[in-house]
Amino acid sequence: MKPLRFQTLLQVSLAIALGLGFAACSNEKEPESGAEQVPGGVNVPREKLDELAALSETKGAYAQVCAACHGPDGAGNEELKAPSIAGLPAWYIKEQFAKFREGKRGAHQDDAPGQQMRAIALSLTEAQIEEAAEAVSKLPIVLTELPPEEADLERGRYLFANECMECHRYNGKGEVVFHSAQLISLNRSYLRRQLKNFHAEKRGAAEDDIYGNKMVDVTSRLSDEDIEILVDYIGALAHGDDPRPAREL
Ligand code: HEC
Ligand code: HEC
Fold first, then answer.
1. Does the beta carbon of 163 sit less than 6 angstroms from any atom of ligand 2?
2. pLDDT in tens, 190-207
3. Considering only Cβ atoms within 10 Å of each terminal Cβ, which end of the chain, N or C, has fewer?
4. Who wins on pLDDT, 6 or 209?
C-alpha cells in the first residue's frame, strides 16, 4: 500500500499549497503570470488547476481531490477549515459549486476558506462535479456535535422555530423547493463561520444570489450571541430535539 499512501500525501500537500498560495495572492491587484483571471477578481494559478483536474480524471474525484481536505469519510478537517460535507444532498452541492464558480461565493477578499473552495470548484469539469456530488451525497451523514451542557436550548429552540424552521424545516434537513441547506450535519465551527459570513455579507450578498440574499436578510437580525445560541441549538436538533412547539402562530 506504499504508493497509495504516498499519493495521498502528495494530494494533501498539493491542496494545502494551493490553498495557502491562493490565499496569499488573493490580495494582490496584478494577476500573476500564468494565473487565470476569473470573474470576481480572483487569480488561480493555471498549472495548479491543471494538476488537480488531471488527478481527478484518473480516479473518482472524491478520493482524488476532495478527501485531501474534507477527509476520506467527508467528516471535515477543522485545521483546514474544511466542513463536514458527508450526506449533503447532491442538488445542494451542485448549486454551491455553481456559486463558487460564478464568484457568488468565495470571492470576498476576507473569506480565505471560501476562496480555497472556489479554486477547487474552478479546477473541475461539470462531469467531475456531478460525480463528486453524487459520491458525497452517499457518504453516511455525520451529525453536528452535541452542544455544551450549559447551552441555552430553550432560547435556541424559540429562535430556530421562529426564524429558521420555515425554510430549513423542523428537522433542519433543508428543503429543495426553497433551495435551503441541510444544517444538522454541519460542524459547529463551520456553522458559526457561515452565519457570520452571511451577516457580514461575505457570502450571499451578490445581487443575483436570491437564495443567499435570504440568509443575508435573516442574519442581519442576529447578534453574535444569537448565532452562538443557534449553533448550540442545531447540535441539539441533530440529536433529536423538536422545535415545533416553540413556534409562535
Ligand atoms: C484545499 C482544500 C479543499 C479541497 C481539496 C476541497 N474542499 Fe470543499 N471546502 C473547503 C473549504 C475550506 C470549505 C469551506 C468554505 C467556506 O467556508 O465557505 C469547503 C466547502 C465545501 C462545500 C460547501 C459546504 C456547504 O455546506 O455549503 C462543499 C459542498 C464542498 N466543499 C465540496 C467539496 C468537494 C465535492 C470537493 C472535491 C471535488 C472539495 N470540496 C474539495 C476545502 C476544500
Ligand atoms: C427565507 C428562507 C430561510 C430562512 C428563514 C433561513 N434560511 Fe438559512 N438558508 C436558506 C437558503 C436558501 C440557504 C442556501 C443559501 C445559499 O445558497 O448560499 C441557506 C443557508 C444556510 C446556511 C449555510 C449552510 C451551509 O451548508 O453552508 C446556514 C448555516 C443557515 N442557512 C442557517 C439558518 C439559520 C440558523 C436560520 C435562522 C436564524 C436560517 N438559516 C433561516 C434559507 C433560509
1. yes
2. 999 999 999 999 999 999
3. C
4. 209
Report which of 69, 72, 162 is spatially closest to residue 119, judged by C-alpha positions: 69
CB-based contacts of 170, cutoff 8 Å, min separation 6: 242, 243, 244
Q: Which three cell numbers stand for residue 119?
A: 479554486
Looking at ligand 1, which residue's alpha carbon is closest to its atom 6? 66
User: Residue 170 and residue 247: Cα distance in Å, rounded?
Assistant: 10
Query: Distance between terminal CA atoms of the chain?
Result: 60
Sign (positive or negative) of CA dihedral 8, 60, 92, 202: positive
- What band does 145 get if pLDDT is binned at 50, 70 and 90? very high
Closest CA to 22 of 55, 58, 46: 46
C-alpha cell at 107: 470571492
What does the pLDDT look like over 73-130, one tens digit per residue?
999 999 999 999 999 999 999 999 999 999 999 999 999 999 999 999 999 999 999 9
For ligand 2, whether the C-beta of 168 sits within 6 Å is yes
Ligand located closest to 199 CA: 2
Contact (CB, 8 A) for 49 and 123: yes
d(CA 108, CA 190): 17
